[in-house]
Amino acid sequence: MGFRWLWGARAVSVLGDSLGLVALLLYVQGTTGAALAVALVLLAGDFVPGLFGALAGAIGDRFDLKRVMVVCDLAQGVLTVAMGLVLPPLPVLLVMVALRSITATVFQASSRSAMPGLVKDEELEAANSALGAGTYGLEAIGPLIAAGLFLVTDVRGILLIDAVTFFVSAAMLSRLPRIPRAEPSGHSFLKDARDGLGYIWRTKAVRVIGIGFFAVVAFNGVDDVAMVFLAKDELHGSDSASATLYAGVGIGLIVGFVILARYAGRMKMPTLMLAGFAVSSMGNLVTGLAWAIWAALALQVIRGLGIAGIDVGVNTHLQRVVPAHMRGRVFGNLYGAIGLAAGLSYVLGGLLLQQTNARTTFITAGAGGLLATVVTAIGVRRSGDGEREPRVRR
Fold it and tell me: Burial level of 116, CB count in 10 A (0-12/13-18/19+)?
């Protein structure tokens, strides 16, 4: 029952957040007319929180996880109300977006850390798949709902709806049972954060996964930037066709999570993770060779299947092998690093796109991701991590 409350809370708040992001981007574009301003909003939401991953994870390892998640949702709701009521100028808005995203990073680390306390070990694969479908799936349809809401309200109204979803989520999370956690270390907050980084660096199996995940995202994250150029310049598609391509990954994610909810328990999670790295990277590489919009869409659906495998494989495996008192810090550092990798990919991939074209960018991204997959597979094999799948360390 506890997992259902967590799933419902995440689904509600992620749906609201996807509505709010569309509203914010349109507000910034409309008030500034500058592409750089829109890019800065995305970087404030993705890149800045990555700088605080070590600290974000330490919070969940020091305090009651249920309380941390409720407070995070309330804080995000208050910040969103403030943004909606004031509609501040760009510099203030960037600070508020960054603060909300840092709070979301704390929530994400705590929610992933809480999973082994809410479901049985043999249910982890299905639970992580269901959580992924509920979050990524609703995130994918959020822009469509936002388009409908703009017919009856404005940016301010949509941001206030977004805020309400956070308060609803906090109310649902308050129904969670008590989540078992390890005893606090007794050390200072900063020392706990340093210890989390030290644990990742000393533990080869965790370090290999983290570096591999970072590298794959650093290569492939540029597809968000390059997609519209591939659709319009190389494939000569319309605005509608360009928008459709962005739905491909979302479709693949939903289908992938549904399949994994039933069959992931039959696989070893490091194997699933590596398969996800390879499939998602291959999806981008072959998208660069696509000859028509429909072919590129199909290939991006395949890429979405791979991303679903990465999500379930990485999260489930780390929930099993990382001690309870370190989980928050491991997930905080991991997803903080992934945010940094995405920002790096936007910048470097954008430069490559500017100097070459979308096909070259997709092919380079996919080839680089496949190379990172091979290196990660060698590291996983040498660490012996792929040959064992221990039960949850509570």
Answer: buried
Cα torsion angle, 172, 178, 181, 184, sign: positive
Tell me the C-alpha to C-alpha distance, in Å, between residue 346 and each of 27, 52, 149: 22, 19, 30
Q: Which of 100, 5, 55, 20 is nearest to 332 (CA)?
A: 55
The full 3-state SS of 308-370, as one line of letters, equals: HHHHHHHHHHHHHHCCHHHHHHHHHHHHHHHHHHHHHHHHHHHHHHHHCCHHHHHHHHHHHHH
pTM to 2 decimals? 0.82
Nearest to 18 by CA among 174, 128, 161: 161
HEC string for 305-320: HHHHHHHHHHHHHHHH
Residues 6+ apart with CB under 8 A from 345: 217, 218, 219, 220, 221, 222, 365
Q: What is the per-residue pLDDT across 280-322, written as a single tens digit (0 to 9) for each?
A: 999 999 998 988 888 888 998 999 999 999 999 999 999 999 9
